[in-house]
Amino acid sequence: MPALAAMSAPEFYTRVARLYDALARRGPGVDTLRRTLADALAPAPGATVVEFGCGTAANRPYLEERVGPDGSYVGVDFAPGVLRVARERGLARGAAGHLVRGDATRPPLRADAVDACCGAFVAGMLAEPAAAVREWAALVGSGGRIGLLDLARTSRRGWRALNPAFRLFVRAGSPPGTAGALDRSPAAVQDERVAAAHRALRAVCTGVDYRTVLGGFGRVSAGTVE
């Protein structure tokens, strides 16, 4: 196994997959965040929903609850380790679904097979998040649904005192070498990328539902592609 400092992002997330899964499922506020995304995306019963950057597929139960037994969930991630954990979770629940190794910026899917798509905590990892959102909009096509769930520093009075702790959280969760490769703090870059992704969603969608949760740290946007 490569030394931590020499790891690529997929290798890093593969190595920490079990820890990531524990935080993704039992971290403070995660149920609220994931339920808010599923409620805002609101895929129709029977729909096929794709989640980009699915990680260990912690969002899967919330989305499957929405699409029902006639719908299907497809998870896409670039790290094989988190996909292995996701498959184990799916088998334990008796849920088939589909888990695919792929790039969120180049969806490995047929456009005519997708009704809705979403990304959770992925926009801050993408060099060009707005371009990725436009790719997702093209994938689902006119009338399809897209949604985003992200974390960023808050501007809410009374909660801003937690921003320094949030900056440390972002740095700790970044692949090795991320901070040194940026000209600003990882949290500042994440804020910028999250804002760009949500602006792009508003530009390609109508009826956008935008919500902030958990003191303004959580940002959720969803809409229907024009």
Overview of this structure, please?
There is one protein chain. With 226 residues, the protein is of the alpha/beta class. It has one domain (4-225): Rossmann fold. The chain has 9 helices and 7 strands. It has helices at 9-15, 17-26, 30-41, 60-67, 80-93, 129-140, 163-172, 178-181, 186-204; strands spanning 48-52, 72-77, 98-101, 116-120, 145-151, 205-213, 218-225. It has a 7-stranded mixed β-sheet, sandwiched between helices. Strand 6 (205-213) and strand 7 (218-225) form a beta hairpin. Helix 6 packs parallel to helix 9 (186-204) and helix 7 packs across helix 9. It starts with 8 loop residues before the first helix and ends with a strand.
Mean pLDDT: 92
Shape: globular
Question: How would a textbook summarize the main sheet?
Answer: 7 strands, mixed
What oligomeric arrangement do these chains adopt? single chain
Spans where pLDDT lies below 50 across 5 or more residues: none
Query: CATH-wise, what's the superfamily?
Result: Vaccinia Virus protein VP39
CATH architecture descriptor: 3-Layer(aba) Sandwich
Q: Which class of secondary structure composition applies to the elements?
A: alpha/beta
Strand tally, please? Answer: 7
- H/E element sequence: HHHEHEHEEHEHHHEE
Output the strand order for the largest sheet.
3-2-1-4-5-7-6
Please tell me how large the radius of gyration is.
Answer: 17 Å
Q: Strand portion, in percent? A: 15-25%
Which CATH top level class fits? Alpha Beta
Query: Within the CATH hierarchy, at the fold level, what is the topology?
Result: Rossmann fold
Number of folding domains? 1
